[in-house]
Amino acid sequence: MTRPLPTHVGALVVGSGFAGLASAVRLSQAGHQVAVLEKGQDVGGTWRVNTYPACACDVPSHLYSFSFAPNPSWSRTFSPQPEIFAYLRQVADDFGVRDKTWFGTEVLAAAWDGAAQRWAVRTTAGDLTADVLVLGTGGLSEPVAPKVPGLETFRGTVFHSATWDHDHDLTGERVAVIGTGASAIQFAPEVAKLASRLTVFQRTAPWILPRRDRAISRLERALFKAVPAAQKLARAGIYSVRESWILGFAVRPAVMKAAEAQARRLLAKQVSDPELRAKVTPDYRLGCKRVLLSNTWYPMLAQPHVDLVTDRIVEVTQSAVVTVDGQGRRAEHEVDTLLLGTGFSVTDPPIAHRLRGTDGRTLAEHWAAGGMSAYHGLTIPGFPNLFLLTGPNTGLGHTSIVYIIERQVEHVVKALQAMAAAGVRSIAPRSDVRAAYNADVQRRLQGTVWNAGGCSSWYLDANGRNTTLWPSFSFAYAKELEEFRLEEYETA
Ligand code: NAP
Q1: What is the pTM of this model?
Q2: In CATH, what number is assigned to the domain containing residue 315?
Q3: Using CA atoms, how far apart are residues 414 and 406, in angstroms rounded to an integer?
């Protein structure tokens, strides 16, 4: 039997991935009454949803985990998805989050009620109100299918990397993969082991660096367990190395030439066919798109039963993907199954269409003209007592988002403390404060490789503005959040 929702809650957390779990844990510890709404049937967020073959994280686990819940038992430097999912489930158990969570409950709409100074929330399991809304809804949660005419007419099987159909056997099939991003480069080499023919459709060649993944030895694990300081040291070491990447990404993109040379060496070593080599050589600066790590991608493409097609996809028919080359020649690629590694809707998040602020308009309407923006990427003028974790310009191209999430959650705790101390019931950042902050972030992004590296990516919105990434070191973001300054907010 499902528990009824509470009618009112102090802090309502939406989502139970890394962001939702950290919020639930820390807000509870700070003495707040917390309820978590999770649309799925378990915690884990993106690590519950993405189950495609070989799904793993390319940030080392000793850093890609909570500082308050170290796991000395990580089996590999880059943990596979089942292990990260298991870790998050363990965290939920250890910190008592499940008791506070309503599973199978999706937020349909939330509107700020100015008279009552609270959020009125409509969910698939009924209505409730909340003093504070903390959104851990994630930036990479809404799968996107390519806008290709005829895709809906395809008679074979189609699924996205984020909705993998494990009941579908790919053995002996003619399979197509659309996309060559972080997801596709992980699952396609696994698909190639099963398929009789694999056709990979590449729109933009990715930069690929060697994947330095290794098993963490029993001895190392025993050490981390017996001496927690050793694991802290390992974490700090990984953090420092990753932070140094910012020198290339944001300070002096020309530094990336050294990394490009390393990527080219991998390519030269793994691909001997000059035609294939030309096709997979990127024509923009490394780092402009997310840097991919793989030792298996190029060897997979070099296999005789794998084709790499770089011609433009113009149509999907009942049984084929149709491309047109530079001379206008059409080719039909017959396939049984179509796998979409085509990414997520990042710059137009679905939750923004479900939130209504003080003026009754949705957050998506607020953002329609200028793109996503928030103060500290976390709070939004006209949307009181709303905290959007991993919001605009808080993404990272170089290190662990878990670090950012923890800093944000601490800031939420400080905000609620400041409100209580000042005796105010609601806060929303002043428009001028948000505008100045955002102008500064946009200015700092100008020379970075993400903006100036000569590519298009999901970091940029439809107007070419980078509304996703933080422009600097992650510790610089942490510094921004160290203090909560009530005078920067409108209060009631
Ligand atoms: P993605 O990076 O957005 O890649 C989508 C791919 O689909 C791109 O290669 C894109 O080509 C291609 N594409 C999209 N529409 C197309 C069309 N109409 N025709 C042809 N190609 C099309 O998505 P993702 O691979 O799912 O990764 C998303 C993010 O999730 C990553 O950047 C990363 O932050 C995270 N992630 C991390 C890991 C990890 O830790 N290892 C693994 C998976 C995902 P273009 O490049 O030309 O746009």
Answers
A1: 0.97
A2: 3.50.50.60
A3: 12
